[in-house]
DNA sequence: TCAAAAGTGTTAAACATACACCCATGC
DNA sequence: GCATGGGTGTATGTTTAACACTTTTGA
C-alpha cells in the first residue's frame, strides 16, 4: 500500500515483499504499519517504473525499507485473484480516513490509482537482520520485525503471501544454499541449526545436522569461539562463497 | 502476441502459455505462427480482463487455443526484464508489416498498446494431446505441435519461458502427480515410462520404474491389453483419482 | 571431578540402483 | 521351442535417521 501518482509506473501491477530476518532464535518478517486510522498492517510494497525490470523494482523497494542493496531476493508467486483487493479492506480504510486523505493532498486521481484492482508479484528477501535499519515509508506509522508465528493481522491476501514465501524458502534453502544470507559473517554450528529449526519449525538431530552441513562442503572452519561457558568452545564457521548467495 | 484494443484489459500485463502435450514418444509444445511477414513464432498469449483473475484469464486463453476447459495449468514465473520486449523483434515485425497492419484496421492506439513494454506471467498447461483440436487465433497463420527439442525460433524471451516451464514440470511431476494429465484415460506401464523418458530426456530402468510407480499407490490395474504382438500382454492402468490432477 | 555442550563415530533402517529370473504370447 | 517384451524378486550400494561415545571447558 503505497500511495503514489500513477504517472511513471506500470498500472495495476505491484510488488509485495516478504523480508525475512533471523533474531533470538526466531524467523521474523519486516512489516510496516500504515499511518491510517484502523490498524492496517501491510507487507512492504511498491510499483514498477516504466524503464525498470521487476527484479530491479523489487531491489529498489527493498533498499528503501532496509537500507541494503546487496540482499538475496527472488520472486515466488503472482497474486492475481479478481477480488484480491478485498473491497472490505479498502472500504474500511477509506471510511475511516477520508479527512486524512484530503489533508495529505491525495486527489481523486491518486485515490483512483490506489483503489483499482491490482495484480501483485510476490518477492521474498533474506537479510542479515543486524545490518538492517528499518526505514519508515512516508505512508507508514511504524515498521517492525515480527516473529513469523506472531504476525499482526495483515491486509488483503498478505498472510497468504507470507505462507507461500515460507514454503518457497523451505524448498530452496538447501538447494540454493540460502541460510547464510540470514546469518552474520561467522556463526557456530548450533546457531546454524537453530536457524534451520526456526525456519522449518521442527527440531533436528544435532550430530546428523552437523554431518549434513559439513558434507555440503561450503563451510569453512575458523578458530574456536570462547564463550566463557562451562563447556567445550564451539568452532566458528564461515560460508566459503558468500558472493554466490546474492545471485538471484 | 495478441493485437487487441486496450479497453477492457489490464495494461502492460500479459499471460504466455507453454502448453505441453505428448505424442509419438515425444514431449511437444503447442506453438502458433503469427500471420505476419517474417516468420514469427510466439507462445499462445493473451491479456487479463479487469474483472478476471489471472488463473481464469489463463484458462480462457488456453480454452481458445485447445478447446479444452478442464486442463491442468499452473503459473511458473513472471518475466519482467525492462527490455524483454526486444526492440529488435518489434522493429522487424513493424518494418515488414506496415501495410498489413493498416489493412487490418490496426489504428495507432492498438499499435501503441501492443508495442509497449509488457510484464508477462508464464503459465504451463498439461493436456491429453488427443483431445485437443488446435485453434488458430485471428492473428495466427497456423498453430502446431512441435517436439520440445525441435522448436522453431521463438520471439523475445519465449525460449527462456519454455525452459523454465520444463524445469518446473520436471520438479513437480512426481510431487503433484502430473504425468496423468498428459496421457489418455488408460495406458500401459511402458507408455508411462516413455512419457517420463521424454520429459526428463533420459532412460529409466524398466523394473525400478514400475516399482516406483506402483509404490505411489495411485495406479489402478485394469484388464490386460491384447496388442497382438508376440509377447505377454501388458496391463492397462488408470489413475485412481484423475479429478485431483485438475486442481491448480 | 562433574555437568554441560561440542564434536565424532557406529549401527540400523530406508531408499535407490543393478542384476537375475519367470511368465505369457505368436510365430 | 523360442524370441520378444512384460512382470516380479533379490542383492547391492547409498543416503538418512538413531544411538553411543569422547572431548573440552568453567565451576
UniProtKB/TrEMBL annotation, chains A, B:
The record's annotation in CDD domains points to: NUDIX_NadM_like
Looking at the record, the residues that make up the Nudix hydrolase domain are: 10-168
| Top-level taxon | Bacteria
Q: Which InterPro entries match?
A: NUDIX_hydrolase-like_dom_sf (IPR015797), NUDIX_hydrolase_dom (IPR000086), WH-like_DNA-bd_sf (IPR036388), WH_DNA-bd_sf (IPR036390), WHD_NrtR (IPR054105)
Could you give a GO molecular-function term held by this entry?
Answer: hydrolase activity
Alphabetized UniProt keyword annotations: Hydrolase
Segment forming the signal sequence: none
Q: Which PANTHER family match?
A: ADP-RIBOSE PYROPHOSPHATASE, SLR1690 PROTEIN
**Name of this protein:** NUDIX hydrolase
| UniProt source species | Fibrella aestuarina BUZ 2
